[in-house]
Amino acid sequence: MPSYRFREAAALLGVSDDSVRRWADQGKLPTSTDEAGVRVVDGADLAAFATSTARATAVAGPVAGESARNRLVGLVTRVVRDTVMAQVELQCGPFRVVSLMSREAADELQLEPGVTADAAIKSSKVVVEVPESRS
Questions:
Q1: How far apart are CA 7 and CA 23, in angstroms?
Q2: Does pTM surpass 0.90?
Q3: Could you tell me if residue 131 is inside a domain?
Q4: Which residues in the chain land under pLDDT 70?
Q5: What contacts 128, CB < 8 A, 6 or more positions away?
Q6: How many whole angstroms separate alpha carbon 131 and alpha carbon 60?
């Protein structure tokens, strides 16, 4: 299992190095020492911590019925329309979500930068990639 230095862990969690250091000092995030004597976080511990501390930035509103289980509240940051299609980008907490839809749908929903919207995500396939620099 890989281990991460505080800077790397902070980047993965979307927080500052100081936050990771504070959590480690408070005993909220387990650490060990690597061969160079530097405090590191085990990958499994970091994943567990990320999962346990994840929280939505807002609560999605009620829906009459929906098969999608992954709903994120976001802020529309960009809408690119052509004659047939629209590309809509939302910032949902730390996540950027991009949706392709008909221009008609984007117009009917009045999607423009600054509007809040829910991203309901349903996919039968998820691609997971590992970076080349994986240790």
A1: 13
A2: no
A3: no
A4: 1, 54-61, 63-69, 125-128, 134-135
A5: none
A6: 33
CATH number of the domain that residue 109 is part of: 2.40.50.100
128 domain-assigned:
no
Q: Which amino acid is at 63?
A: V
Q: What is the pLDDT of residue 72?
A: 83
Q: What is the pLDDT of residues 105-131, one digit of tens each?
A: 999 999 988 888 888 887 776 666 777
Q: Does one domain contain both 46 and 76? A: no
Among 23, 25, 18, 26, which residue's Cα sits nearest to residue 46? 23
Q: How many domains does the chain have?
A: 2
CA angle 123, 127, 133 (to 5 degrees): 155
- The whole-number pLDDT of residue 11 equals 85
The rounded mean pLDDT for the chain is 84
Q: Encode 86-100: b = buried (16+ Cβ within 10 Å), e = exposed.
A: bebbbebeeeeeebe
Instruction: Supply the range of the domain harboring residue 75.
Output: 70-121
Are 49 and 81 in a shared domain?
A: no
